[in-house]
Specification:
The complex is a heterodimer. Chain A is mostly helical. Chain A has a domain of about 190 residues: MetI-like (MetI-like fold). Chain A has 14 helices and no strands. Classes of the chains: A mainly alpha, B alpha+beta.
């Protein structure tokens, strides 16, 4: 009886210990996770502060001054004598070059703390926040469609050439990948504009929609898509190659796995193996790259947007650099860095969820 | 594979759908009933302010909506009366301006005397410095200007000064608060003394303490955003997006019968290659400027309805020396005049330019020819490539040639040449100069700046790294009267590059100059007749006031005086032009030449009928007069 009681007590103690252990493990896991995320957030914040500081200093070191550049522009635009244009430039600019660098830095930091990323030197009514609101949607529109198209096509091409190695198709697709990836997207842009815009006149060479048509609703959206077609193709052509190569590499790794051999041995049809076993498993590592690519979309592409005269954030960035609009350059740089850092942090955190080894390394 | 093919087919089908259903080919983009003139002209994509002084680039509105009293054509000074019906310069130092009876603002209000006054009373433009008091209203449609007798310009210049500003841009009713405040601050400033030639708009010397008040008021004026675009011109703003702007014919315009096109459609394009694409596929009907020869011919080949006309650009391109560097002795400067084949330099910069054999003279050749006495013009020294002469002069300066390389004090000569890399002509010239000098035994290092601002910043700095630069040696951005070009050459741009001497406070304390002349040019030239020397600054400040005969004499002094100094080298007179679509525009000049070649290389001679007509085709030079005066109509 005593033994029985002892055994029961022992068992209940063991169970209590187990419960304690599992609660302990849970707390420990939570602690590790919180610590992991806090560390990531801390790194992200430090990176942001450093980027803001570096951006501020580097921009101050840029050659040329905005007053002379603006005066030259006014002189050209308004047919003014240089001195008169310079006087007007000084009056019109929202910038005092005589302020010390510390005053400028303090003003910049104060603005940031008020979530004001910066105001244009030329137009006090134009802020970085406004630029983001006005131009980012157009950039995201074309670049996200291009990303989706290139990702899907790249996945299919990559898995096909991995599955059918040494075939004629692999040769053809590999040649395409080499050619398309080695020519930069802006060059593709120029080629497309020349062929479809100038030579055959089937697509517009510039712009985002036609104002004279006075369209609304679906017809307007179609008109927008029509104008976006060439920039999307230019983006996609180059990106497809990258995704296809990444997918091919990933597929080759998966092809050596036992479950592929087992599936083949079980007589599962080739189509099913490619679709369910190969493509799905090989796609996993590409998902994190996709997250990073999504972040890169926010920067736009100054060159592509300039070639197609597409009103995106990248083109605005280019214009600000050319006109030495320091505050806009600073603000946009910071915004883009913020997006990349956040995306990086999310990708990092997702990885830790998928792969516990990353967590343990902390 | 079936899945892959299916997806590929869907993507291709989507792209096809976009082009078929969403596709609205450019041909379908305009109504058949309306005549539309299409151009490329950039404006702020972030949106425009609803007035000319708002600090935003307003694009096509500047040409077609905002007007001056009188429009001058750059490079010819041809005058066309717009908002002003007449301008009468009287002997009592006054000018009476009568405004057109039926001139109206785009919101329907009458354009009245207060509006002319409002423009000048808030914008202290150059003209206001020549006035002794604020502008007076005679009646609703008449104003009176009173000039400072000691600075009174001649009648030609008075009209040109009135033509220099877009007066139809400040409606008094709309901007009353700021105009009145500006006048209130101005009234509290002390009057200038008689004979005072410093900055004194309306005869008032602005005190340092008032500058901040003026600036604050102007900033508020600039930020004011009316609900309508403040203008009076032949076209009204209908709508504007980031990429397109539509202007509609102003039905209340005082010359409404002259306005033949119903609409203006402008594309907001900055990149020059995109503009060439629009020209090539016929989406725009006009573009000013000149493309490189191959590009120009390719555009004309792709669009058979285009022609390109050429005209003088009132500026010359060449070399400007940095006189701060001890290397530039008079002999060396003269020797450099003989080193270059100017036709080669022209070919490198602008194939259609006109080679010049002059040194830097302060005026482009066409401007010198136009304004100078013929006899004096012939006296300007001409130089051509003569390496023996250059060698002789360099040897006189103490240079020696060793193993094919020129040396001074036993050291190889190495010169740094700065240029603005964003200007294709300047880049071409810089490379050609490098090659010519290297062949002659002078080592040159090219320093390319990415834009004009950074180039000028470096070029004008004390201890600049540039020994010499490629630049406009002479350029007139405003009306053609020679003052603009002289100011560019001696005071505003080339003066700081040349490091010309300036007056100091010490000179003022020694009684040599007035206080307002501190920092002014201390450069002296010899008079053309050899009767002594004169200060260039005195000529510059009086240039507007000379009579025609006096002007000719003074120009001889200025041009021949500068030529003796060899401050730089003119390589070629620049030539610009305009692409025009003759299938869309009726009223173009020189159309008889198009059958022979649509790339019309002939530049009409100064003073000829085509000289004026061709200059007018360049909208940058003539703004909207082809449209307001009915020179252009749709075909």
């Amino acid at each position: 009886m005593i033994n029985m009681i002892n055994r029961t007590v022992k068992n209940s103690n063991r169970q209590k210990n187990k419960a304690k252990e599992s609660v302990g493990n849970f707390i420990k896991m939570c602690f590790f996770r919180v610590r992991f995320f806090l560390k990531r957030i801390w790194i992200a914040m430090v990176s942001l502060v450093l980027i803001a500081l570096f951006g501020f200093i580097l921009i101050k070191l840029m050659p040329g001054n905005p007053v002379d550049t603006y005066a030259q522009q006014l002189m050209m635009e308004r047919g003014m004598k240089y001195e008169e244009a310079r006087k007007l430039a000084v009056t019109l600019l929202n910038y005092d070059p005589n302020k010390s660098i510390f005053e400028q830095l303090s003003y910049y930091v104060k603005s940031l703390l008020r979530f004001n990323l910066g105001t244009s030197m030329r137009r006090p009514d134009v802020s970085v926040n406004l630029l983001i609101k006005q131009f980012l949607p157009w950039t995201l529109f074309i670049s996200s469609i291009a990303l989706v198209i290139s990702f899907i096509v790249g996945i299919f091409l990559g898995s096909s050439i991995a599955w059918k190695r040494n075939s004629l198709m692999e040769g053809a697709i590999s040649s395409y990948i080499i050619v398309s990836s080695s020519i930069p997207d802006y060059l593709w842009g120029i080629i497309l504009v020349f062929i479809f815009g100038v030579k055959f006149k089937v697509f517009p060479v510039q712009g985002n929609y036609d104002i004279l048509l006075e369209l609304e609703g679906w017809p307007w959206l179609l008109n927008v898509l029509y104008h976006a077609a060439l920039p999307i193709v230019a983006y996609s052509i180059v990106q497809i190659g990258g995704w296809a190569l990444a997918m091919r590499g990933s597929c080759i790794g998966v092809l050596g796995e036992d479950y592929i051999y087992a599936a083949k041995a079980r007589g599962i049809p080739e189509k099913i193996i490619v679709k369910r076993y190969l493509r799905r498993n090989a796609m996993l590592p590409l998902i994190t790259s996709l997250a990073m690519s999504l972040a890169a979309l926010f920067g736009g592409s100054p060159l592509i947007e300039t070639i197609f005269n597409y009103p995106g954030i990248g083109q605005q960035f280019g214009i600000s650099i050319a006109s030495r609009d320091y505050f806009i350059i600073q603000g946009l740089t910071l915004f883009m860095s913020f997006i990349v850092i956040i995306a990086n942090m999310i990708a990092d955190s997702l990885y830790s969820v998928i792969d516990p080894r990353v967590r343990r390394d902390v | 594979m079936v899945g892959f093919r299916k997806t590929l087919a869907i993507i291709l089908a989507s792209i096809l759908m976009l082009s078929l259903f969403g596709g609205c080919s450019p041909k379908r983009s305009t109504s058949k009933k309306e005549t539309v003139f299409k151009i490329a002209k950039s404006w702020d994509k972030t949106g425009i302010r609803n007035h000319y002084h708002g600090g935003s680039n307003i694009g096509a509105l500047e040409w077609f909506a905002v007007e001056p009293l009188v429009q001058y054509v750059r490079s010819t000074d041809e005058l066309h009366y717009l908002l002003a019906e007449s301008i009468e310069h009287r002997d009592d130092h006054t000018t009476i301006i009568k405004i057109r009876k039926n001139a109206k603002w785009h919101n329907g209000d009458e354009f009245v005397a207060e509006d002319v006054m409002a423009f000048y009373h808030i914008n202290f433009v150059e003209l206001t410095n020549y006035l002794s008091k604020p502008i007076e209203k005679i009646d609703d449609k008449t104003v009176k200007l009173t000039w400072k007798p000691w600075m009174e310009p001649n009648d030609t210049v008075k009209t040109l000064l009135l033509a220099a500003d877009k007066v139809g841009s400040v409606q008094y009713k709309e901007f009353k608060t700021y105009v009145d405040e500006c006048q209130r601050i101005l009234a509290s400033q002390p009057d200038c003394e008689k004979g005072y030639k410093g900055w004194a708009p309306f005869g008032k010397v602005i005190q340092k303490s008032a500058e901040a008040k003026f600036l604050a008021n102007y900033t508020a004026f600039k930020a004011h955003n009316p609900t309508w675009f403040v203008a009076t011109g032949p076209y009204k703003l209908e709508k504007v997006t980031q990429n397109q702007m539509v202007l509609t014919k102003n039905k209340d315009y005082y010359f409404k019968n002259n306005v033949k096109f119903d609409k203006i459609l402008a594309f907001n394009v900055v990149d020059i290659n995109s503009i060439y694409n629009l020209l090539s596929n016929g989406e725009i009907y006009y573009q000013d400027g000149l493309a490189p020869e191959a590009t120009l011919n390719s555009i004309l080949e792709k669009n058979k309805n285009l022609a390109h006309l050429k005209m003088f650009d009132p500026g010359a391109i060449g070399l400007v020396f940095n006189l701060e560097k001890p290397i530039w002795t008079p002999e060396v400067r003269r020797a450099f005049q003989y080193i270059f084949d100017r036709e080669e330099m022209r070919n490198a910069g602008n194939k259609y330019g006109i080679p010049s054999s002059f040194p830097l003279i302060g005026l482009a050749p066409s401007e010198a020819e136009r304004w100078m006495d013929k006899e004096d013009f012939e006296k300007i020294p001409r130089y051509k490539k003569d390496l023996d002469k250059a060698t002789q002069l360099l040897q006189q300066a103490g240079w020696k040639k060793v193993d094919g390389k020129w040396q001074i004090n036993g050291q190889n000569v190495k010169l740094v040449l700065g240029y603005d890399g964003s200007h294709p002509g300047m880049s071409g010239v810089a490379e050609a100069v490098e090659s010519a000098l290297n062949n002659f035994g002078i080592e040159v290092m090219l320093k390319r700046a990415n834009d004009w601002g950074s180039w000028f910043d470096t070029a004008k700095a004390r201890d600049s790294v540039y020994d010499f630069v490629v630049n406009w040696t002479d350029l007139n951005m405003s009306f053609s009267y020679p003052t603009g070009s002289f100011l560019y050459t001696y005071r505003d741009v080339n003066g700081p590059i040349l490091k010309l001497p300036t007056f100091t406070r010490e000179d003022y304390e020694n009684g040599l100059i007035q206080e307002y002349d501190i920092g002014n040019l201390a450069l002296q030239f010899e008079k053309a007749d050899g009767s002594g020397k004169f200060y260039v600054k005195d000529v510059l400040s009086n240039l507007y006031g000379y009579s025609e005969a006096e002007l000719k004499k003074v120009l001889a002094d200025m041009v021949l005086g500068a030529a003796k100094m060899d401050f730089g080298i003119q390589f070629y007179q620049n030539v610009t032009g305009s692409f025009v679509d003759f299938s869309k525009i009726d009223g173009l000049p020189m159309t008889d030449r198009f059958a022979k070649s649509r790339n019309v290389t002939e530049v009409p001679p100064v003073g000829s009928e085509d000289f004026y007509k061709v200059a007018r085709t360049n909208l940058y030079f003539s703004q909207g007069i082809n449209f307001s005066l009915g020179f252009y109509s749709p075909k």
